[in-house]
Amino acid sequence: MSEQIFHDSTSDRTYRARRISGRIVIYGILIVWAIISIFPIFWTITTSFKMAPDVMKGNMVPWWDYTPKWLGWRSLGLSPDTIGNESTVREEFLKRFWNSAVVAVSSSLIAVALGSMAAYGLSRFSYRFGFMRNSDISFFFLSQLILPPVVLALPFLVLYKSLGMLDTRIGLILLYTLTVLPIVIWIMRDQFGSIPTELEEAALVDGLSIWGAFLTIILPIAAPGMVASFILSLVLTWNEYFFAALLTSSHAKTLPVMVASQTGSQGISWWSMAALSFAAILPLIVIGVLLERFIIKGMAAGAVK
Amino acid sequence: MSSEGDLLHVVTADQISDRRRRFGKTIVWGSAGLLFLVAFLQAADHNGWLDIGFETWRPTLYAYVLWGICLCAAQVIERGEHGKRTLFVLPATLFVVSMVVFPLLFGLVIAFSDWNLSSPDGRQFNGLDNVRQMWTDPFYWNALKNMVYYTLAIIVEYAIAFGLALLLNAEIRARKFFRVAFLLPLMLSPVAVSWMIGKSMLENRFGPIARLLRELGVENPSFFSTPEVARMMIMLMDAWTYIPFMMIMILAGLQAIPRELNEAAEVDGASVWRKFWEITFPLMLPVSITAILIRIIFKLKLADIIINVTSGGPGGATDSVTSFIFREYRDRSNVGYGTLLAIVYLIIIAAAMTILIKAVDRWMRPRY
């Protein structure tokens, strides 16, 4: 081998060094933030398999400094040895879980249906309801976002009481639909705005009615936006605590209310709380991991015009 | 998108007979009449003039729903194609109006009364007593002041979110993994977060963070005993859940910036720092403002974490307005006072948001 003739110039070499150190910094920050984001979830999962001494000693890594036990899950009646038996706690948990699921899914569905229709109408036709024109109607819908839930909470408490709708799922569903409707309309308005009107024009020429064109031509194209707004609504309604805590007591209580009611009474028996919390967040973690791109699409819709 | 013109041109030639039109009018007014009749009967029953034996006000609700359906149907019956277009917006409008406007008007009535739901007396009109009580209630003003602090924390959240979005937008491997990992906190319910972080990780004796601080030499770390630290902890927990939200909006904005601009600046020899301040940041201003405004709206609803972690303590130092009203109702079950506080809060934030939006609008589009 002869001596190397061509060298990188000094400026190129400093560039490479800078680039590598830049990479290290970027990945360093990314990894640190990933740990910040994931550690509480990891902590909750591992704690649900701990026993009292493990909690006191602050053991963290399973199989390395403690042996996982089913203690927390047994108290929920969800561990392998109790899953076949009768368990009142599990029944309670499953009832709350079912309530949450019913309320979240149906209110999101209603919101997506109502919101898509309204957004479509607003993006295609000009309306006049009295002094309200299209932009006023849009503003009316979006301004509901500013309305803090606490303003509606107490009037609804009284109204529902006189209507006999306290502690019913339908009452919660209606309120939740109201809270997510502006977000759905926002996302869907963006979605419909990006679909050219020529599509409907062609469909109308071919003899479809306007609703026929909407249902058979436009909705399939707007499906990704609908999925995105549905999932965002699902996240918000599944996690909602404030209305549920005020308006439900025994029958229609949702999962967050159950989790909240347990936190005070448990003391240091962290394992059962951890199991309960983890069971409550698991569905959304699954949705988050699997459907991440829809969530991002939904949130990005309003951002970029 | 806010154009007022007919975006979709449809020529309609509807032959609507007079009978059809009359039928439409009949069902609307008929159902409205039914609604008033039922409401009147119920009111009479409620006040004891008549004895029909209604248990709840549900019949009125059903009559109202029937009227809503008739109104929607009448649109098509009376106006044909034009009615079908109205039908897109009408259901949502009716829904929102009945779910927001009526309760708000009703709330205005309760706000000026003393109404303890558990007492048998029912509603007592008490004029401006609630206002006077609010004026001298230090906890309410304290909660409002806390909301200002909580809202100001958004600036820091924004800076962090922007930084993370820039990193995610850089050429990195495993971008999808990082994106999912960063997004996860947003998916968790605040109630679960308040246990996971507030009650267990920040526990004074066994929590991992207290342990870490003790390792670092802090004696007796406690997170919720002094007002400043407790408030800071609430801010941190809330930031942890919502930074991903801003981050994703900003990331979407960053990805929409055309590459050519950055390439041109590179050719001109701009440093990374100048490229950021003179290209990326100015181009990101509209997106940033949207993200911050939405974040403020969400922040003003902050309550779940406070209710579950500190329940306002120590001494109301961490209270947000929502959590304060929640406790006020829980402790005394007085609907009237709580509603007044909520309505005052609504007026304050509606005014503040309007001013903010107008100011931003003027600043973004200066008229010379």
Could you explain how this protein is built, in words?
The complex is a heterodimer of chains A (305) and B (368). By secondary structure, chain A is mainly α. Chain A folds into two domains: 10-76, no CATH class; 88-303, MetI-like (MetI-like fold, Orthogonal Bundle). In chain A, 74% of the residues lie in helices and 0% in strands. Chain A has 13 helices and no strands. Chain A has helices at residues 10-47, 52-57, 71-76, 88-124, 134-143, 149-163, 169-193, 198-205, 210-239, 242-247, 255-265, 270-290, 292-303. Chain A is flat, with a radius of gyration of 26 Å. Chain A starts with 9 loop residues before the first helix and ends with a helix. The relative contact order of chain A is 0.12. The radius of gyration of chain B is 28 Å and the shape is flat. A two-stranded antiparallel sheet of chain B has the order 1-2. Chain B folds into two domains: 18-111; 137-364, MetI-like (MetI-like fold). In chain B, 73% of the residues lie in helices and 1% in strands. In chain B, helix 3 (81-111) packs across helix 14, helix 5 packs antiparallel against helix 11 (272-299) and helix 9 (227-255) crosses helix 11. By secondary structure, chain B is mainly alpha-helical. The interface between A and B is large, with 110 and 107 residues.
